[in-house]
């Protein structure tokens, strides 16, 4: 099926929905001075705006890209560091890097943590962007991730007495609901694409929630599909160069390899989404000790 002519920038649909939910349902928390959700929303919107510039150039100006790769990289690094600094000085983030499943911390100097933050955020955001290559895939994979962060935020709010997690729970739940609605139009055969506007926003949201909850390494678990997609791209390029033209995968990133092996986009959605859901359940065990019932 040809996808030419399918509207893009559909990410604006769920960005708008999440914004409305946070600023209405979360109004009592905002009135009490808990701005964590707004910080994550603003951070996600910065990445969405970077994607919007590219989408706009492709749609309106008929160019392949709006920003050069170095420009996008520098903007993403700047946004990542600014967000980490903001979380640091508002008390949400500590230099004690929590290690899931081991229930221990790795204490890092702040400058090292900033470098780690920039790398982790930029890598994750672009990994989510790579995942957006089949109908419904990025939204379907991020759906259980949003549910995980909604559950974790609510857990911390009610059992760990963390009122600042309330807006994060609302943001996550709003994102979950918005993605369900978006999938009505984005599931195969897609009638609208989220574009870079949506995929970069989702990447920012995943990172923003993980860092605001001070469990950034959990991205490696809940984002197992993002990690696999990014690694497949890296492996493909490295193998191609090392073997002077041979390919490790039939095509990268990973979902294209499976497509070329006969998988339908519906099957990709179900399998990749199901794997993510299982790893999100596993992730709760990994952070359970971080948020004990007291």
Automatic annotation (TrEMBL):
Enzymatic class: transferase
Chain segments annotated as transmembrane: 12-28, 34-53, 73-90, 110-130, 137-159, 165-185, 192-211, 268-291
Membrane topology: Multi-pass membrane protein
CDD domains, sorted: GT_MraY
Gene Ontology biological-process entries: cell wall macromolecule biosynthetic process; cell wall organization
InterPro entries cross-referenced by the UniProt entry: Glycosyl_transferase_4 (IPR000715), PNAcMuramoyl-5peptid_Trfase (IPR003524), PNAcMuramoyl-5peptid_Trfase_CS (IPR018480)
Enzyme Commission identifier(s): 2.7.8.13
Pfam families to which the protein is assigned, alphabetical: Glycos_transf_4, MraY_sig1
One cellular component term from this protein's GO annotations in UniProt: plasma membrane
Keyword terms, alphabetized: Membrane, Transferase, Transmembrane, Transmembrane helix
Gene Ontology MF annotations: phospho-N-acetylmuramoyl-pentapeptide-transferase activity
UniProt subcellular location: Membrane
Major location category of this protein: membrane
PROSITE patterns with a match to the protein in the record: MRAY_1
UniProt family annotation: Belongs to the glycosyltransferase 4 family. MraY subfamily.
PANTHER family in the cross-refs: PHOSPHO-N-ACETYLMURAMOYL-PENTAPEPTIDE-TRANSFERASE, PHOSPHO-N-ACETYLMURAMOYL-PENTAPEPTIDE-TRANSFERASE HOMOLOG
Protein name (record): Phospho-N-acetylmuramoyl-pentapeptide-transferase
Species per Swiss-Prot/TrEMBL record: bioreactor metagenome
